[in-house]
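Case study 2.
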Amino acid sequence: MFRRESFVIADIYVPTKRRAMLKPEVVGTIAASMLEIGQETPILVRRDGERLVLVEGLHRLEACRSLGDTTIIGYLVQARKH
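Prediction:
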């Protein structure tokens, strides 16, 4: 079972291919929702040596960043490298 954890946003690496899929309008919508009701769905990250790599939740991560948050709720998962 996964355990919710708080991760430092600055410590999460976003792969270039994943970053290319970023849609600013989606980030804005999610940020507005987070202001109103908070973060509902945790992001997924995996370990790659010493760093954390984003697996799922790019728009949630960027919404938190745009709001000035320094941490985000997520799950640490075992995932294959792409």
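Residues 13 and 51 are 7 Å apart (CA to CA).
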